[in-house]
Amino acid sequence: MKERMKKKRNLFRKVREFIKNTFKKDPESNLPAFSERADGDYGRQGLLTTSREEFEAELQILEGTLPDDIFGAFYVSLPVGSVNSGGLPFVSKNPDDTRNAEHGSPIMNGDGIVILVDLNHVPAPLVKTKLMKTPCYYADEATKWGTKHHGLMGFHNMGITRMSMVFGARNELNTATVPVKFKGQNNSSLLATYDVGRPFLLDSKSLEIVTPVGKCSDWMNAQPAMVPWPFGITQTSAHPVFDPVTKELFTVNYSRDKSSFTHMEQTIHQLRTNRAAFKDSLESLAEELVDHPDHLHIKSKVHDFFKKLPAPKKGAAKEQKVKGEVFMYLFKWDGNGPIQRWDVVDQTGENLIIDECMHQMGITEDFIILTDCAFKFAMDLLFDNPFPGNKLIERLIRRLATVRMEPYTHTYIIKKSDIIEGAEKVTAYKLKKPIPLETIHYSCDYANPGGIITLYGVHNAATCVAEWVRTFDRRATDGKPVDPEYYSLFAVGSMDISRLGKWKINTNTWDLEIENSVIFEDPGKYKEENLGPNTWTIVLYTFRDMISSEKVVPTIKQLWYVSDGTDNNLLTKFVYRLYKNYPHRKLSLDVIKEVTKKELPFSVTRINLETMQPEDYYQCAPKTYIRGVQFIPRKTPNPNIPEEMDGYLFAPVEVGIESGGTWSFTSQFWIFDAQDIAKGPICKMGHEKLVFGFTLHTSWLPQAAPSEQQYIISIKGDYEDVIRHLPIKAEKQFLEDFFNDHIYKHFS
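Request: output the structure for the sequence above.
Response:
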């Protein structure tokens, strides 16, 4: 026992010696920081060019007229690269001409930035951008290339997440903002969210971080028990739900089965203690196996490889052992005190087990809806490549880790009446049969008359949202290498048309009423120039008062969705092989290849959810990409227009410009009349500093106003408690000094 404790005390000392003597010699780690992009052109840009610059300026009207009755504050979240990259894309070479290990990283792995467009500002709308600077952001900044703490202590892109072997995982808050307005507050705030990070409350005007939701000790971490990280891996939902009636926020905290960790414990142990030899051995294994035709043979050889490695030492604290097992918690927060937490079990009393992730949640008058979403943002992909600069190892790990999405959606329902203060558990009732299609995003009518829930699901059939275009990928249509402009983008080349489902769920019997449910699907007139309403690659959608902090929508009547069409460079041979035997196929593989070669344009469709039929449609010009869409109501209602259509659509758009056979892009905001999108945008706005290549979710508030949040968690007290309870005792003084020097000073 005494010898074991001595080894623990020496762990951090060995790590620091390793950084000094070994890791600095590894060219893959020499990732320099640079604050300005080499191209430096904020006018025309490449497909993925994205700025990290924080700025504030008035938008310029580029075309059309700004409606005089549009108002409020529009928000959109997006990833913008790392502290080293200076924005996007992740370039192939560093300024000193060495290979950039971040090159080819997925765009989803990037610091979050929130863009605010204040439409109440006069004389012109004000655009403001703000990086989401969480505590781990400042740790990343302090350990980037060129600092004394870089190397093993620094953060590195490892597939879809960014990790440090000493500090843990980044919480990048790059996915969505959720409006909230707690009891006693006049102004709404925003939650900045991420699938693998604790949400933070933002001031909706300044965009500054106000407080995390819950203390670190409230959240269970998903990493293996032997990993003593101050920044743990926290799995949650990127789309928690706020109830405007009860003024309460609901979210989840969960872990998948420990068996899904894919040799993670051994990998981390080797990276911390024997990195160079581990890399050489893994590279030799990759050379032997990466092109082997027998997948089972590959799995067997890799299993044997890890079996022969020295095992990490055991002996973590009892609480940490629990953190490696399956757990599921429901959180409720009223904004005025600590969060409340319940263990979630199914109707048999067993812990809820999630196979993929819980990207989305839903809420109605009487129920909370949980789903196992078709988005592999989970442990087996989080730790994708421990040597991100080595493409041979990346190819091998991709073959091992990537699996098809399940072609259905398990759904669980929690009765709000069962969420009892002081109780330890709450039951989530699993539907007898799953929704028979994969689902990422969905919304529900707030009304649930007679216990019948109406759920509207976007079903990205045979589409792998968690996959991204790699530097070694080839196109499925012709076998040619993918255009480098597309590296890092989501590999969402559709292998079938998407669907939009209207599902009836009977909470009296826990049945999915298939006979009362409707699916809309349409490939459009894909052989003609004008495609018409279609469901090619549905990604984002909007409706009036979607995720409002003040109003519920008893029945969603009209919905606008964006179709991303098809793109030759986004359907890779890897994804094609993965989904060629898709069980719900509507279109043949020959048609898929034909339509992908044609490159169908982006479009917006309005669908009447009562009839489940499209009623309005707008088609973009080639290489014009609508990256999101948000409904904004008119400031003064028009009595001649149905309430659900009385307003505007506000959209971030990447506009392609062809010159001499090449394309460049500009970033703009477009405004549509919601009741007549077919006539096209009525106003286009931009600014020379507004530069984005890909955006994620949007939200809207009637006004951007200072936060009135009174209950605020101290970052210093929170992380002092974390460090105090780390199971490894050695070098705590180093962590305390580091946090004092680099993190606490940024939070009052």
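The first helix runs from residue 2 to 9.
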